[in-house]
Specification:
By secondary structure, the chain is an alpha/beta fold. The protein folds into two domains: 5-130, P-loop containing nucleotide triphosphate hydrolases (Rossmann fold); 135-373, no CATH class. 42% of the residues lie in helices and 17% in strands. It has helices at residues 5-13, 30-39, 55-60, 63-70, 87-97, 110-117, 135-142, 144-149, 151-157, 168-178, 185-190, 196-207, 216-223, 227-239, 268-275, 287-305, 350-356; strands at residues 19-24, 44-48, 75-79, 102-107, 125-130, 243-248, 261-265, 311-316, 322-329, 332-338, 361-364. A hairpin with a 5-residue loop joins strand 8 (311-316) and strand 9. Helix 1 (5-13) packs across helix 2 (30-39), helix 5 crosses helix 6 and helix 12 packs across helix 15. The radius of gyration is 22 Å and the shape is globular.
Length: 375
C-alpha cells in the first residue's frame, strides 16, 4: 500500500473545528486514505453513506438518531457523502448542533457536493483534493531508482492506485474502463447529461490538444456542441477531476496572450485511453506531449498534497516567445521549461525576465525529475 502525502496534511488539520471535505475522482483511493487516517485516531468511525440503513438517519437530521449512529466515537468519516440528499444541510446540522463530533466527508464529484455545501458550510469547512499517485509517493515506497526505471510505464498507463502494479495487458483494460462513462458517472447522474458520446468526443479533442492553446470555438465545431455547452462541460470535467486548466500568465505587457487557456489531464493513462494509444514510448512520436502532461500534473499533485496555495500558468507572446509552466507562490515566480531530451535547453525570454524580475529558467527532463519534490 502506498502512503498518501495528503494523509500528513489531513492529520495536521484534525484538531481544527472545521469539517474536512475530501474530494477526488473515482478510484483514486479516498476511502483507503480515510481508513488509514482513522487507524491512528482513537474513537473514530467510518460510515458508508451508500448504505441504505445509514442514509435515512442522516437525511432525517434527527439529532438523537445521529448521536445513536455515531455512538461514543468523536471522529466521524462520512464516505461517499455526495449520495445523501441535502448533504450541506446535514453537515451544517452536525457542526452546529453536535459540536463534539469532528466530521470528515468524502465525495467523488465536487460539483454536486460543493453546490450543496457552498452556502450552508460557509466558514465551517476545509476542502482537500486527492489525485492519482504522485512520483514522490511512489518514490517513498519503491525507491527513486524504480520510479526512474518505470517512468515509461507511468507516462503510458498513469498512476491510479488500482492500476500501478498490474501487468501491461491488465493495465490497458483497467484504465480503458476507467476512462469510459465510469469516470464521469457523477456528471451523467447529477447534472443529468444525457449525451455521453459528446462528452467522450470533447475529452478526445482535449487529449489531442494537450500542450496547445484550446479554442472553445474549435471544440464546438469538432463536437457539434454549442459554445455555452462546451464551456459548461469543460467546467464540469474539471470538477470531476479529469482535466485541469492552465491560464495564460500576463499583466500589462503589450505582446502577451492574456485570455488563452491550456488543458491537461491529471493522469497520463486516462489521456492515452482517450486517444486509444498505449504504445510504448520508443514507438511513439508524442513523447514530448506526454512528458509535458506528466510533469505539469505532477507539479499540481505535489503542491496540493503538501497543502500549499500555488497558482499555475503558462506564458506566451504573440510573436512566439513562451514558457511551459509558471509557478506563483507567495508572490514569487518560478519559470520551468519541460523537455523530454536533456540535450535541449530552454532559454528565458528577455521580455519576461525584464518585466517580472525572473532570472532563472529551469528545464525539467527525465534526468532531473527529482526537482518535482524538491521545488
Amino acid at each position: 500500500m502506498y502512503k498518501r502525502q495528503l494523509e500528513y496534511t489531513l492529520h495536521k488539520w484534525m484538531p481544527a473545528r472545521e469539517i474536512i471535505i475530501l474530494y477526488g475522482a473515482r478510484q483514486v483511493g479516498k476511502t483507503t486514505l480515510v481508513s488509514e487516517l482513522l487507524k491512528d485516531l482513537p474513537d473514530s468511525l467510518l460510515i458508508n453513506c451508500e448504505n441504505t440503513s445509514v442514509a435515512p438517519i442522516l437525511e432525517s437530521r434527527d439529532l438523537g438518531a445521529m448521536k445513536t449512529l455515531f455512538g461514543s466515537n468523536r471522529i466521524i468519516a462520512l464516505d461517499e457523502a455526495q449520495t445523501l440528499a441535502n448533504i450541506g444541510a446535514i453537515l451544517k446540522t452536525i457542526y452546529d448542533e453536535l459540536p463534539r463530533y469532528k466530521i470528515i466527508a468524502t465525495g467523488s464529484s465536487s460539483f454536486d457536493l460543493s453546490t450543496q455545501i457552498t452556502e450552508p458550510l460557509t466558514g465551517r469547512n476545509l476542502k482537500f483534493c486527492l489525485y492519482p499517485l504522485s512520483v514522490d509517493e511512489l518514490r517513498q515506497k519503491d525507491g527513486w531508482l524504480q520510479v526512474l526505471e518505470n517512468l515509461g510505464e507511468l507516462m503510458v498507463y498513469g498512476s491510479y492506485p488500482g492500476v500501478i502494479n498490474m501487468e501491461h495487458w491488465q493495465k490497458e483494460k483497467k484504465i480503458t474502463e476507467l476512462a469510459s462513462d465510469y469516470l464521469f458517472k457523477d456528471l451523467l447522474t447529477f447534472e443529468q447529461v444525457k449525451d455521453s458520446a459528446s462528452i467522450r468526443k470533447l475529452l478526445k479533442a482535449l487529449a489531442l490538444q494537450v500542450g496547445s492553446q484550446v479554442s472553445v470555438n474549435e471544440l464546438s465545431n469538432f463536437t457539434g456542441l454549442n459554445r455555452p455547452l462546451v464551456e459548461k462541460y469543460l467546467d464540469l470535467l474539471q470538477k470531476c477531476f479529469i482535466i485541469f486548466r492552465l491560464n495564460s500568465f500576463s499583466s500589462n505587457l503589450r505582446n502577451e496572450l492574456k485570455k488563452s487557456n491550456k488543458y491537461y489531464f491529471f493522469d497520463n493513462g486516462i489521456l492515452n485511453a482517450l486517444t486509444g494509444n498505449f504504445n510504448p514510448l520508443p514507438n511513439r512520436n508524442d513523447m514530448g506531449i506526454l512528458w509535458e502532461n506528466f510533469v505539469i500534473s505532477e507539479f499540481v499533485k505535489q503542491y496540493n498534497n503538501l497543502g500549499l496555495e500555488v497558482n499555475f500558468y503558462f506564458w506566451r507572446t504573440y510573436d512566439g516567445a513562451e514558457i511551459d509552466l509558471i509557478v506563483e507562490r507567495n508572490q514569487e515566480i518560478s519559470a520551468f521549461e519541460i523537455k523530454w531530451s536533456s540535450r535541449r535547453k530552454g532559454k528565458l525570454p528577455e521580455s519576461f525576465s525584464k518585466k517580472y524580475g525572473v532570472t532563472k529558467l529551469t528545464t525539467i527532463h527525465p534526468q532531473n525529475l527529482h526537482i518535482l519534490f524538491e521545488s
